[in-house]
Structure formats: structure tokens, C-alpha cells
């Protein structure tokens, strides 16, 4: 039924202008602003829709994953831009001082200004 559908995902934030600034200036992404929302443009042909929600509650799970070639360089670049990476120490997930979990694959998590969890994941 949906095999030919160009599905896309979305999530809420409490302040669309803070989100726009973060996704553009910190993460370097292109965005559009349709109808008071934020459309994050990706190479995957489908935008990610970010919408304002007055009673926003951040998800307790990862809402967005960015595959990267070199997680160490990516994490260092984001730290230089003021991003703080999450520290997790449970089960098989144990992050180092930078916030990188050195499993297979390597992954690191951070939050956007609305508290949504985002990851960078090394893809070779």
C-alpha cells in the first residue's frame, strides 16, 4: 500500500526559531519554513518536519540520526560549536569522555534546544 509513498518523519519543539537557528547554524543544515513549521532538508529526498507544540515534551528516545564518516571528527566539530554530548553508562552502552559509545557502530547522542535526542552514527 505504501511502497511508493515518500514517507517522512517529524517531531515537535517548543520554540521554532531556536530550532531553526540550531539546525542551520550549529548543524549546518538547510531549512525552509512552511506554515510556521521547519522543514529540514536532507539528501534523502524527503524533508524532516519540525513543528511547534506549546506543551512540547522531548522524546526519551532518539528522534533523528545522522550517519557520518568519522565520528571523532564530527563530535569534535560539534563540541567546538558548543554542543554537549550525553553520557550513558548502562548495559552495552558506555560512552567515553566525549560522549562516544565505541560499539559497532560507534554512536554519540546530543540534544537540540527543545531537548530532543539526536545522534551521530559512524557509517563506514
TrEMBL record:
Pfam families: Glyoxalase. Residues 5-123 form the VOC domain. This is VOC family protein. It comes from Mucilaginibacter calamicampi.
